[in-house]
Design brief:
The chain is α/β, with parallel strands linked by helices and 325 residues long. It is built from 8 helices and 6 strands; from the N terminus they run αααβββαβαβααβα. It binds N-[2-(1H-imidazol-4-yl)ethyl]acetamide (AHN) and zinc ion.
Length: 325
Amino acid sequence: MKLNKTLLAFTFLLLAFYSCSDSKKSTDGDKPTTETKRPFTVKFNADSAYQYIQEQVDFGPRVPGTDAHAKTAIYLQNKLVQFCDTAFMQLGSATSYKVKYVEIKNVIGSINTDKTKRILLCAHWDTRPQADQDLENPTTPADGANDGASGVGVLIEVARQLQAQRPDAGVDIIFFDAEDMGDSRGEATTWCLGSQYWAKTPHKQNYVARFGILLDMVGPKDAVFAIEGNSWQYAQPYIKKVWQTAAKLGHSKYFVNQHGGQITDDHVFVNKIRGIPTLDIIHYDVSNGSGFGEFWHRHSDNMESIDKNTLKAVGETVFKVVVDL
Ligand code: AHN
Ligand code: ZN
């Protein structure tokens, strides 16, 4: 009798083991499974994102070639090492319209490296060498709290939350360097040197993702994310997905149903060179000056131009889009 019981228990365990490993079999790679999606809680701590913005700003303007820039690159790599499965710095070089040699440091973190279903999240991290829209002092750089640090801060916090609730999809986070050294009266290719470098030389040969989301100037109070023209042209279904997700979360005040103009930004090169449909979430308020806001390329682009409510709207939306994938 005792033996029978042991045998029974053993058989049960064996069965349990096999039924377990069987259900696992269906989840390898990206094959669709009959399993229902595990529930995720939309979480994003705006205080934490704000702190990541502050920490970048505290290094000083992240102008390529400066000490602040070099130190921030290490800081960003460390953050992605902490919150992603793998992280590294892609080193390259480019020529700007002013300088022959610009060292490029693109910081890249990946989550679920072996998944073929992937999403690309990106933002530029460099600061424009001069706040040339500033009437008083157009020759020195601004803090770049919004222009640069905001998108990066949001994505670091998204990475931290994804580490806590692991997404099913693969995620690649890229902080592009040298976006903001462009000629305001010149060619589009004078901008976005880091993303152009990466698009031509991706960190993995033949790298692909379902789609990409670029964040740029995602921190202003009462931000308006008009639908950007290139994003509409290249990534229309994903614009709809992101804007609908924002609406469901109650963030339509920011993600307005209104079309803005075409903006030259990192996503243009990811679209054109790499062929990954990528959209830009960028503050662009048609009813206001340049559209980019009063702080744009001015010294008022400091921590005071950052509003935590905006960071939260963007962070929650991006987090939800990733876990829904
Ligand atoms: C142009 O002004 C051509 N593009 C704006 C892209 C940008 C600059 N984003 C942040 N700074
Ligand atoms: Zn800029």
